[in-house]
Amino acid sequence: MTTTDRLISMKNKSRLRLGVNIDHIASLRQARGTSYPDVIEAARICEAAGAHGITVHLREDRRHIQDRDVWTLRKTIKTRMNLEMANTPEIVAIALDVGPDEVCLVPERRQELTTEGGLDVVREAKRLDKPVKKMANAGIAVSLFIAPDKNQIRTSADIGASYVELHTGTFCNLTGKAAKRELDRLISASILAHELGLNVNAGHGINLDNMDAILGIPFLDTLNIGHSIVSRAVFVGLENAVNEMLAKIAGYKGGKHG
Questions:
Q1: Which residue intervals of 118-237 are DSSP H helices?
Q2: Is residue 84 annotated as part of the catalytic site, yes or no?
Q3: Rounded CA separation 136/21 (Å)
Q4: What residues make up the domain containing 210?
Q5: pLDDT tens-digit series, residues 214-229
Q6: In a domain, 47, yes or no
Q7: The one catalytic residue among 84, 102, 165, 182
Q8: Is 204 labeled as catalytic in the residue annotation?
Q9: pLDDT, tens digit, 9 for 90 and up, residues 5-55
Q10: What is the pTM (predicted TM-score) of this model?
């Protein structure tokens, strides 16, 4: 690779992408069992506003996104579809049929309000190996949602994931010195993942108020953000909420850290 090629590569790497999670549009619909608000229209608005991708989580209990949503979104999304999912035979089979651009394997418990904590890839490596390879062989980029732990990152690379998504929720719930320590963990984890050839996404708990700190994490490819954007949309509209987030991430410096 020439010096020019390296500079071009770094410039492209510094363009941070926004994936908008529209699960909670579906949560509003499911709360009353209505046909609205329409997740397909929500995805269209997000893309028109400049979002680089759409994320949905097809949970086993189908509490928000439904199977029909996934199939219809796959046909209508113009950018990139990221399917969050548990590692279960049923959901893996659906992913293989639908063929999203990317899947993000996450831990899932019925009683949780939202995804809590990262996937334990070290403990689950044997169970993850086959579905990761199946989906990768089908042309689907596989991401693993993990805590910023070096062993989790190394094992993610070992089993053939192409992405890790760093769980930022712990950082976003902390303040002061504890938050600084967790941010340092996220930075170190992202550097290691990059060195191992993994693409790095991040998500959970990210909002306009904590974004400046999140932008200190190097080598990020995509931020997947849902709840804060949908919440903000209640006051300013979905298009404006996406635009605000895009404006916030526009100055990301990519691999230039320290």
A1: 121-137, 150-158, 169-172, 176-195, 211-214, 227-236
A2: yes
A3: 22
A4: 16-249
A5: 999 999 999 999 999 9
A6: yes
A7: 84
A8: yes
A9: 433 344 444 589 999 999 999 999 999 999 999 999 999 999 999 999 999
A10: 0.90
